[in-house]
Design brief:
Number of domains: 2
Shape: elongated
Number of strands: 2
Radius of gyration: 31 Å
Keywords: Cell membrane, Coiled coil, Membrane, Transmembrane, Transmembrane helix
Distance between the termini: 42 Å
Largest sheet: 2 strands, antiparallel
Protein name: Lipopolysaccharide assembly protein A domain-containing protein
Structural class: mainly alpha
Pfam families: LapA_dom (PF06305)
Strand content: 5-15%
Number of helices: 5
Order of helices and strands: HEHEHHH
């Protein structure tokens, strides 16, 4: 399975490098359309190679997706944390009750009760 993963990642790397080499022409990115830039009074433009724009868009989409999913799963992580605290509290209570029930007993009998 590990070799399949390495083969897939190698193929993906070769594919990305070939796409990058094929799309080295520069493109101009504008923050706002020219007509709206005249009304607003500012225009931000930047020239980048096309592969940087494409790969940057893919990377931004992946990051946005991860953050979105992390925020969406917050309620599940919070519930798991509450349940974990509750389990630890109950385990402490069970230990305390076992110790209380074994008071005054022989040590060997107390160890046998704890084992069961």
């Amino acid at each position: 399975m590990r070799y399949i993963r390495y083969a897939f990642l190698g193929t993906l790397g070769i594919l990305l490098v070939s796409v990058s080499l094929a799309n080295r022409n520069f493109v101009t990115l504008k923050l706002v359309p020219e007509d709206l830039a005249g009304v607003l009074g500012f225009n931000l433009t930047i020239s980048l190679p096309l592969f940087v724009v494409v790969l940057g868009g893919i990377a931004a989409g992946i990051i946005i997706g991860f953050v979105w999913e992390w925020l969406r799963e917050h309620k599940h992580r919070k519930e798991a944390s509450v349940k974990h605290r509750e389990v630890r509290k109950l385990e402490r209570e069970v230990t305390k009750l076992k110790d209380k029930s074994n008071e005054g007993k022989d040590e060997v009998l107390a160890i046998l009760d704890e084992a069961s």
